[in-house]
Predict the 3D structure of the following.
Amino acid sequence: MINEAEIKSLIRLLDDPDREIYSHVHDKLISYGPAAIQYLENAWEQAFDTIQQDRIANLVHEIQFGIVKNELELWQQSGAFDLLRGALIINKYQYPDLDEQKVINQIEEIKRDIWMQMMFEGSPSDQVKLINHVLYNLHGFSGNTTNHQDPQNSYLSQVLESKKGNQISLAIIYSVIAQKLDIPIYGVNLPQHFILAYLDESAKSEFESGVLFYINAFNKGYIFGRRDVDMFLKQLNLNADKHFYEPCSNTDIVRRILRNLISSYEQLGSMEKVQELNELLAVLQ
């Protein structure tokens, strides 16, 4: 049961100069969790004192960060089956008021545009060419080559609006749509790059792991083969380890989003964000 009078009384004490009183008020408001946010936001709008405003803003962020952390823990504990859900949870770190249904609807719309043109007897390469046509030509998605380190490239809601993203965000959109169409395309966690693999699920062998070919979502869905991965790893002086050729887990993909964001915010000098994102990364270890 929410004690509205108590929450409002506590908020009025937020500008108290006594650190002990503030600490008690802070902890009590945090204990209310999401239920306190609306009251805090209303109070922020009416506050004239900058200390009180700062403290309210920090409290709201702390509660919202706790929500993201809890949701990520639950996602991981429940098997991390839904990649889109994992990406949306990270999205809410920067955009806590994210309209998740809007993002889901945008992805469904692209899926529908592909499905309307799909020949169900089409070969794997035909299917990929169709996805590429709809995603890159009709909807205008492309890799953000001019501002690759921008953290906005890692938030799906922003990528769906701007139509520009990094390797990981474009690959997530691509593979989520493909899987919704029962096309077996999954992420592959290459060092310094993130690609997709089209699996022949009926012909998995120990050596090839059932990969028919690879797709570069950052480069308009360019199709390439195992030898190209060999050459890429050779350029990086890395051994051809099996996991560089095979689909990775959804948890690996979400970890990769977080590492990209950490790198982006380090470059921007936003060390508080770096610290928080490292906390989220620790949830997935």
Remarks:
- The beta strands are 142-143, 164-165, 185-188, 195-199, 211-216, 222-224.
- Residues 21 and 216 are 56 Å apart (CA to CA).
- The chain has twelve helices and six strands.
- The chain has a mean pLDDT of 91.
